[in-house]
Amino acid sequence: MSAVSSRTGRSLVLLAPLLLFLIGFFVWPLFSMMSQAVSDPAVLRLLPRSAEVLTDWDRKSPPTMPMQTALMEDLKAVDDDQALGDMVRRLNSARSGFRTLMSKTMSALEDTANPPADLVSIDKRWEKPEFWLAIADALSPLTDRNLLAAVDLGRNAAGDIEHLPADRSVNRVILVRTFWIAALVTFACAAIGFPYAMIAASLTGWKRDLMLAAVLLPLWTSLLVRTAAWFILLQEKGLINDLLQTLALIDAPLPLIFNRTGVIIAMTHVLLPFMVLPIYSVLITIPKNLMPAAASLGAPPWRAFLRVLLPLSLRGVASGSLLVFISAIGYYITPALIGGPGDQMISSIIAFYATGSANWGMAGALGVVLLIATLLLYSVYARLSTDEPGRR
Amino acid sequence: MKTILKAGVLAAAVVVLSASLAAPAFARDLTVVSWGGNYQDAQRNIYFKPFAEKSGKPVLDEAWDGGIGVIQSKVKAGAPNWDAVQVEAEELALGCADGLYEKIDWDKMGGKDKFLDSAVDDCGVGAIVWSTAIAYDGDKLKEGPASWADFWDVEKFPGKRALRKGPKYTLEFALLADGVSKDELYDVLGTDEGVERAFKKLDELKPHIVWWESGAQPLQFLASGEVAMTSAYNGRITGINRTEGKNFKVVWPGSIYAVDSWVVLKDAENKDAAQDFIAFASLPEHQAKLPEFVAYGLPNKEAAAKVPAEFAKDLPTDPANMTESISLNVDFWIDNAETLTQRFNAWLAQ
After folding, report:
1. What is the fold of B28-129+259-322?
2. CA dihedral A286, A288, A290, A292 (to 10 degrees)
3. CA of B200 to nearest chain A CA: how many angstroms apart?
4. In angstroms, rounded to a whole number, what is the distance separating the alpha carbons of residues B316 and B129?
5. Which of B1, B68, B226 sits opposite A357 (nearest CB)?
6. d(CA A251, CA B225)
7. Which element (helix H / strand E) includes A18?
8. Does the keyword Signal apply (chain B) (predicted)?
9. Does residue A113 have a pLDDT over 90?
């Protein structure tokens, strides 16, 4: 017993660096991303008095005097600029205009020489219920606002969930587009990668090495360089169009860039190694004599392929597809450089919220949606691959 | 078993801890961050290297692409690894309100009255005045566009157009093309009807627009003939004319200018040295060298007066270029950037 446990202990010691790494660089960031998406303490933390007074408000009439006094007292008590910034960002995200309104209000409140009587005298916007509504809606420490907005839903003034207006609904279209592009790329990679891996596996010696090197070399080149290279090849006066035009195969240049075609071509090229390598590694383990055996039993080559080789190599295709698809849904640089406005994927929206407007809640919520979609997909894959006979 | 486990965890913890404790022991050199490209090459020659020589300490420089989220995450994490950063006007306003920057020691800078009003802020010192304008290839278009209305006119000037992807500038340009005067521009854009009108005008041009994201792209589109005209940063246009002998023209009427500023990140390790650096880079004798390399206007009034006439005519601050141009309304964009970006993305996805 003790020998066993000491062995587990020793292996745990060996694993400790890996576990710490995983916790520090995988579990913890993932957890904090998900908690960012639902936690909403920025306003409540700074406005405790207003929170109390606002519970009695009917959510539509103009602000009462106690509401204004409570908010003024709360704002005067703020001594942390960064916390104030978090609150203003949160409020401005719900209601445009809070940025300038708050900076005007804060500087008026700091002027102790002639203290303002109420908020409305500082800025007329404080009369409008919309601004107070934004505050009232931000006073719960947990929120589903970001998660709903990530799929183009929101709560109306009465608190019911409804669709956002068309001019604010973009995420669903882009999410669907992201999965569609990823699916097309996965299909293209499988269509090219499978025959390629089959040929590579059937060769020996330097020919095989050459074919594998042709897959591996691009993998070692920076993604940006490969994308830029495609830009040069695909553009209107680029190599491909020039060549086709000199050969008089086409009259006008083909539109290959700033559209879906270009994105699929470039992404397929970039992700192809992730399809070829798993398929190849499965194919070389399949005994070479199975195909001749099928032929000797009377199967023509296409049937031998369909009944013998394809089922045996499906595991490689499935794991390759999963790798390609999961990488593809996170693509950012390639659609941004090669694609048109109709080809931008969800990561460009996430990047805007994260770096452009520091709205980590929305960035986290979109990340959660992407994570859930990926997990669902993985569970489908896991089920399919365990159902597969001969793998058990 | 428990003891072994404990020992393992402890050992790992010690390694991690000692690594994180040892880090601050190596003092980081002053790190200055700017926009990269030939602009930063010029800055390196006229500011970074001379300052390193004067102070006797190395100056590291890095490039970034902007975004208040980048600054915020660095400052919030504590001990940011950048000291002096060049930021756009909205990043200055947002970050200053959010307490992400140190306050500027204006006595060190030589006093506020030495600078243009728009270059003076509690948290930032203006570094350049730059402009976004229409650019076209003078060799291909003998008679080029003169206004945003011409930019929208695809019959008179056939060919694709390029604009920066995002609502900022794009909505302004659309309203100018629709006949809004420059003085009323932000009043109109401040209303729901104005925003509606801008998107409606953009609908007209949508099939002809190629969107760009990084500053080098529009000029590449123009050089390859991919587009007939584009919006571009004025410094890049003049730069490519000088280095590659192009004949790209800048259309000053209807261009929008803004001030980029130096800031010091809150609680940065070298915050005092960073202020010294900014003071050094703001001295007229140093700043006046910049237009020779990149055609950006100078916020230090004395420096602006020292620029030779041959370079001055390309600057956004040149009186002839300034008369019909517009100053970016920073307050409008810090209030509305998020909602309008959302709306812009929805419009783009339709």
Report:
1. D-Maltodextrin-Binding Protein; domain 2 (3.40.190)
2. 160
3. 13
4. 7
5. B68
6. 18
7. helix A2-22
8. yes
9. no
CA angle A317, A322, A326 (to 5 degrees): 150
Helices (H) and strands (E) in chain A, counts: 20, 2
List the structure tokens of B238. Answer: 């003049």
- Is the Cβ–Cβ distance between B169 and B88 less than 8 Å? no
Q: Residue ranges of the domains in chain A?
A: 1-29, 42-141, 171-387
Query: What residues in A contact B9, CB-CB < 8 Å?
Result: 16
d(CA B160, CA B224): 12
Topology alike, domains B28-129+259-322 and B132-256? yes
Asked whether the beta carbons of B151 and B202 are under 8 A apart, the reply is no
Burial class (CB in 10 A: 0-12, 13-18, 19+), A276: buried
The fold adopted by the segment(s) A171-387 is MetI-like fold (1.10.3720)
Q: Provide the mean pLDDT of chain A.
A: 89
- A286 alpha-carbon distance from chain centroid: 37
ipTM, two decimals, is 0.81
Q: How far is A196 from A215, CA to CA, in rounded Å?
A: 10
Q: Which amino acid, B27?
A: A
pLDDT at A105 over 50: yes
> Domain locations in chain B?
28-129+259-322, 132-256
CB contact under 8 A, B4 and A9: yes
Q: What is the mean pLDDT of residues B319-339?
A: 93
What pLDDT is attached to residue A2? 61
Under 8 Å between Cβ of B195 and B340: yes
C-alpha radius of gyration, chain A, whole number: 29
**Total count of residues recorded for chain A:** 392
User: Which residues in chain A (322-351) have CB-CB distances under 8 A to chain B?
Assistant: 336, 340-342, 344, 349
Burial tier of A380 (Cβ tally within 10 Å: 0-12, 13-18, 19+): exposed
Q: How many CB pairs under 8 A join A and B?
A: 136
- pLDDT(B23) > 70: no
Q: What's the predicted TM-score (pTM) here?
A: 0.84
Q: In terms of C-beta density within 10 A (0-12 exposed, 13-18 middle, 19 or more buried), how is residue A300 classed?
A: exposed
Sign of CA dihedral B129, B130, B134, B140: positive
Question: In chain B, how many H helices and how many E strands?
Answer: 18, 9
Q: What is the mean pLDDT of residues B108-126?
A: 94
Residue with tokens 């590579």: A200
DSSP code at position B255 = E
Mutate which: B14, B18, B90, B338, vs A, most A CBs within 10 A: B338
Query: Residue A29: its chain B contacts at CB < 8 A?
Result: none
Beta B30-34 vs B59-63: how paired, if at all?
parallel
* DSSP, residue by residue, B192-247: HHHHHHHHHHHHHHGGGEEEE-STTHHHHHHHHTS-SEEEEEHHHHHHHHHHH---
Predicted confidence band at B14 (pLDDT cuts at 50, 70, 90)?
A: very low
d(CA B174, CA A338): 25
Residue A134 makes CB contacts below 8 A (sequence gap 6+) with: A91, A94, A95, A98
> B132-256 adopts what CATH topology?
D-Maltodextrin-Binding Protein; domain 2 (3.40.190)
Instruction: Tell me which residues of chain B, numbers 155 to 184, contact chain A at a CB-CB cutoff of 8 Å.
Output: 165
Cα–Cα distances (Å) from B220 to A235, B40, B74, B212, in that order, read 11, 19, 33, 10
Give the model confidence (pLDDT) of A315-347 as tens digits.
899 999 999 999 999 998 899 888 888 888 999
Q: Mutual orientation of helices A260-283 and A171-202 as an angle, nearest 10°?
A: 40
State how far Cα A248 lies from the chain centre. Answer: 43
